[in-house]
Write a structure and sequence with these properties.
The protein is an alpha+beta fold and 422 residues long. It contains seven helices and 23 strands. The strands form five sheets. The chain has a six-stranded antiparallel β-barrel with strand order 3-12-15-14-13-16.
């Protein structure tokens, strides 16, 4: 009997469990229904307080020297000496002798010129003495013959004196030229600089007006930066226009009377001060570190670039090879650098990411009641990743940067930061 009971035990357990479940279902209470309010989608938003910002115009360019020339001898001859620094990359100071040309031919020419001056001086003294004797002889003849006429210049040998004076001037000019050519056998550096390349050595014969090396100055360096047309609105480039010629004036302007300036005063244009040059910051990565230099915009190019229609600005850096605090790396010629030009300052603007500016210059704003408001923004400047706008907002409102499909003005939204705090 017990074996048969054990046989039906699983079935009995299932029946008892089913009965208990049915009893629990029959006696349960209905759940309380709770209706949640529609608070809208969750969005990312940022605060955008108003601030005053100085507009920075960015550009790129390569460093090039302000002064660069070919060193050309003015006399011919064999090079007998070159300075040790006259090698590619060598530094030199203003006035340093860079090379010497064999001066012996020019020393001989100088001696001949000195001899010519001595000979011309003798001829002048001789002519002056002869003129003195001619005057004395004429006075003696006039005393005995009672002549009433005056002697001619030829009788007094005055033309001979003038010819001797002219010969002396010519000889002295030849001597000065010989000395100058002798001095030009030593070629000196015209400025503080560096050798870019050289093609001479001692023993080489060089011709006058033949380039022997190329050098550039190290007192200043410049970077040419192309600036877009719309960015020029934030920059004031120092310039002074020349006086307009009369031919370019209208007929009415030419016929109008000209009022002379007051005594002691210059013209209005000359007296007007030049605009302060915009400050610039140059930086680049070199030898594993980022280096920075300070400069300023000195001038603009003479014309717009024909292809890009951009204006090229020249940024100058003083003493690019001088040691600076925290860095001894010079601003090398040929470096590709990034340039930041500091322009005008704008007030009451908000900095927003590009994603926050919708089509038609509309910005989505989440107000303090959790409502999306579509507001028109006044776009001041657009950059790669951010925009500067003027936008009416309160301190408790946020700018929505999330992308929403079917967004409408007045819809409910939940700001991400506020949602986490609740």
């Amino acid at each position: 009997m017990s074996k048969q009971l054990l046989k039906f035990l699983p079935l009995i357990i299932l029946v008892v469990a089913a009965g208990a479940f049915m009893g629990l279902v029959a006696t349960r209470k209905a759940p309380e229904r709770r209706i949640l309010p529609d608070r809208g989608p969750l969005v990312d938003a940022i605060a955008a307080p108003t601030q005053s910002l100085q507009v920075i115009v960015e550009g790129q360019g390569s460093v090039q020297p302000t002064d660069e020339i070919d060193l050309v001898p003015q006399v011919s001859g064999i090079i007998i000496w070159t300075a040790p620094q006259l090698e590619a990359g060598g530094f030199f100071a203003r006035g340093d002798v860079l090379l010497r040309i064999d001066p012996r031919d020019y020393d001989l020419a100088l001696t001949r010129a000195e001899a010519s001056v001595a000979r011309a001086s003798y001829q002048l003294e001789l002519a002056q003495e002869e003129a003195t004797i001619a005057r004395q002889e004429w006075d003696m003849v006039r005393q005995y013959r009672d002549l009433g006429s005056q002697p001619s210049e030829l009788v007094l040998r005055l033309p001979q004196v003038r010819a001797a004076q002219a010969d002396l001037l010519g000889a002295e000019a030849g001597l000065a030229e010989a000395r100058l050519r002798r001095e030009r056998t030593e070629i000196r550096a015209p400025f503080n600089g560096r050798v870019r390349q050289t093609s001479v050595d001692a023993g080489q014969f060089v011709m006058a007006n033949q380039s022997v090396c190329r050098i550039y100055g190290i007192e200043r360096a410049e970077i040419v930066v192309a600036v877009a047309n719309e960015d020029m609105a934030w920059l004031t480039i120092p310039q002074q226009l020349p006086d307009m010629p009369t031919a370019s004036l209208s007929t009415a302007q030419r016929m109008a009377p000209v009022t002379p300036p007051a005594q002691g005063l210059e013209s209005r244009q000359a007296a007007a001060p030049l605009t302060t040059a915009p400050r610039a910051r140059i930086h680049t990565d070199y030898a594993g570190r980022t280096h920075t230099w300070e400069g300023s915009v000195s001038r603009a190019a003479a014309e717009l670039d024909a292809r890009s229609r951009m204006l090229r600005l020249v940024v100058e850096v003083d003493a690019p090879y001088a040691n600076r605090v925290g860095s001894d790396t010079p601003l090398l010629v040929g470096m590709f650098v990034d340039v930041e030009i500091f322009g005008s300052t704008v007030d009451d603007v908000r900095v927003l990411p590009r994603a926050a500016l919708r089509e038609g210059n509309v910005v989505w704003v989440a107000d303090d009641a959790g409502t999306l408001r579509m507001r028109q923004a006044d776009v001041v400047r657009v950059r790669d990743e951010e925009v500067l706008v003027r936008l009416a907002m309160t301190d408790k409102e946020y700018v929505i940067i999330s992308q929403l499909s079917g967004a409408t003005d007045g819809m409910k939204v939940r700001v991400q930061g506020e949602e986490s705090q609740q």
